[in-house]
Amino acid sequence: MGTKMPDQEWVKTLEDGRKVKFIYQELPEDAAFITAQLAGNEVVYSVVLAKARNALGREDVESHFKRELSGKSCTPSGNLRGVCCP
Q1: How far is CA 48 from the centre of its chain?
Q2: pLDDT band at 70 (very low <50, low <70, confident <90, very high)
Q3: Which candidate among 16, 39, 45, 52 keeps its CA 20 to 30 Å from the CA of 73?
Q4: Is residue 1 part of a domain?
Q5: Which of 15, 17, 16, 9 is nearest to 44 (CA)?
Q6: Across the strands, what pairs with 19?
Q7: Considering the domain boundaries, does residue 43 fall inside one?
Q8: What distance in Å separates the CA atoms of residue 72 and residue 50, rounded to the nearest whole number?
């Protein structure tokens, strides 16, 4: 696992030049709330991890959204969890 961190937000530039804002928040009972938002985009990918066990590192949070941020096109219609369907 990556380096543990307190509630935090940061911006990362992806290989293709897009900027993504990540947020990590620890919740009660070992849960965590994580988000990723592309700069200039109204869509925010967010997940509540009910069993986060230990604090997540930046790499853990970023890797959780790897598929959503891959640049592949998908539509949210019919997709209530905000995850791209294959």
Answers
A1: 10
A2: confident
A3: 52
A4: no
A5: 9
A6: 13
A7: yes
A8: 27
Is residue 2 in some structural domain?
Answer: no
φ and ψ of 53, to 5 deg: 60, -95
Q: Does any domain span residue 51? A: yes
Report the domain count for the chain. 1
Phi and psi at residue 61, to the nearest 5° = -65, -50
Q: CA–CA separation, 69 vs 79, rounded Å?
A: 16
The pLDDT of residue 5 = 56
How confident is the model at residue 61, as a pLDDT? 92
Domain that holds residue 47: 8-64
Each residue's pLDDT tens digit, 12-69: 999 999 999 999 998 888 889 999 999 988 888 999 998 877 778 899 999 999 888 8
Give the residue among 1, 14, 12, 53 at the shortest CA–CA distance from 23.
Answer: 12
Give me Rg for the CA atoms of the chain: 13
